[in-house]
Amino acid sequence: MVEAAEKDDEELTEEFDLGEEIDELVNTSLRLSRLEKAALFLLIGAPIAIIAKMAGGSSLVIFIGATAAIMPLALLMGRATEELAIRSGPGLSAFLLATFGNATELIIAIVAINRGHIDLARASLVGSIIINVLLVLGLSFLAGGYKFPVMNYSRITASATISMLTVSVVGVMLPSLYFYATYGFEEIGHFPDEVVTMSLFVAAVLMGVYLLYMLFSMRTHKRYFDGQEDVPIERTRKPEPDLATWPTRTAILMLAVTMVCVVGIAELMIGEIEHIMEGAGVSEFFMGVVIIALVGNAAEHSSAILMAWRGRIELSVQIALGSSVQIALLVIPMLVFISLAIGNFMALVFTPLGLIAMIATLVIAIVIVLDGQATWFDGAMLVAIFLLLAGIAFML
Fold first, then answer.
1. In angstroms, how far is the first alpha carbon of the chain from the final one?
2. 54/38 Cα distance (integer angstroms)
3. Of 78, 176, 125, 179, nearest in space to 339 by CA
4. Helix axis angle, 90-100 relative to 59-86, nearest 10°?
5. Residues 134, 363: contact at Cβ < 8 Å?
6. How far apart, in whole angstroms, are the C-alpha atoms of residue 168 and residue 181?
């Protein structure tokens, strides 16, 4: 397994010298994949957005520059998290991957809530779930199906993940259905005390389910989540320090720097949302469920599709579905409590279209994913469902 991982590492990574001054700081040269090095060019969007903001430039330029810059930052944040996880024990490794695995989406949502864009934050969370299950997994099946007629993966892993998605969808539906049945559709945005209490209770239960999932996947049934023999150790969450390519302090420094940068860039991006919606004539739901969610999930997109292209469909399924589970059972509940502390409470009352989108995603995932086999045609069907949902959101 180690030899296979090292061989793949030789194919995808090479030395990337950032200069003597940075070398002295981190005491190493960074090893980045070709994908990561190519993504660094998008960082040019950050100074473009900042200069445009200072000069009172176009909101569209600021928004595009900020969204472009967030994608490589999210990729590097995920890489730094994995480097730390490699060197950690099973418990700490699981904690790191759970905490920072979707840090970009969490940061963007917190910034949106803090600025009062609660509906945008809710929509971005719905979008993160459906994009990972439909678009990312669909493109992964298409990429893998180009080389392999039939791709097999663990039904136990898929079943556990789909079960948790079912729990999360049912959980967020309950406050929504109660609110709409009791107060109607016109009162959304003004939530009574019982809906607030219900949202907090559901959030606590969902976090408890996620903790049970961590125990299930990391302890009692972890061999089913290790994937194939050639799956990289980073994604199996095993401590293998010899496979790490960054020293610990380099990974910590990179994680801290990218998180701070994502916060700043997210402020720029969210700050221009209203102007973009007015100028383009699109709804806040579309901006959250498609645009913001696509930007926040960039790292998962590339990793899952790349692994499927290389024949590691087991790993690809784990990345796509696992990210959706983290959003549904960890990020959404965390945001409920964080929003309460901020003072802009995000109740678990999703729009009717958001609920329909999550239910449709769950149903299609059950139909296509649970059999443990995939073809390129399955991928095409998943992508088609996503395009339908995105198109309807655009027409609102």
1. 50
2. 28
3. 125
4. 180
5. no
6. 20
Containing structural domain, residue 309: 2-395
Q: Are 112 and 127 in contact (CB under 8 A)?
A: no
DSSP state for residue 301 in the 8-state scheme: H
**What span, in angstroms and rounded, lies between the C-alpha atoms of 390 and 388?**
6
Q: What's the gap between Cα 291 and its chain centre?
A: 13
Give 212's contacts (C-beta < 8 A, 6+ positions apart): none
DSSP-assigned letter for residue 374? E
Q: What are the CA-CA distances from residue 118 to residues 125, 171, 271 (Å)?
A: 11, 19, 13
Find the farthest-apart pair of alpha carbons in the chain and give their distance in angstroms, rounded: 65
Q: Which residues pair with 151 in a beta bridge?
A: 374
Residue 144, Cβ density class (10 Å: 0-12 exposed, 13-18 middle, ≥19 buried): buried
pLDDT in tens, the chain (396 residues): 434 444 444 444 443 343 443 344 334 445 666 766 777 788 888 889 889 888 888 888 888 888 888 888 888 887 787 777 676 655 555 556 656 767 888 888 999 999 888 889 999 999 988 998 899 889 999 988 888 888 888 787 788 788 888 888 888 888 888 888 888 776 666 778 888 899 999 999 998 888 887 777 666 766 665 544 334 333 333 444 444 467 778 888 888 888 888 888 888 888 888 888 877 778 888 888 888 888 877 766 777 787 788 888 887 887 788 888 888 888 999 999 999 998 888 989 888 888 888 888 888 888 888 888 888 998 899 999 999 988 888 887
Closest alpha carbon to 8 in 226, 241, 227, 231? 231
Domain count along the chain: 1
What CATH number corresponds to the domain at position 125?
1.20.1420.30
SS3 content of the chain, % helix, strand, coil (to 5): 80, 5, 20
Q: Which three-class secondary structure state does DSSP give residue 345?
A: coil
Contacts of 341 (CB under 8 A, 6+ apart): none
Two structure tokens written together for 349: 């009352």
Can you tell me which residue has the tokens 């009717």? 352
For residues 177 and 342, the answer to whether their CB atoms sit within 8 Å is no
Write the CB contacts of 22 (distance below 8 Å, at least 6 apart in sequence): none
Report residue 375: phi and psi, to 5°: -130, 170
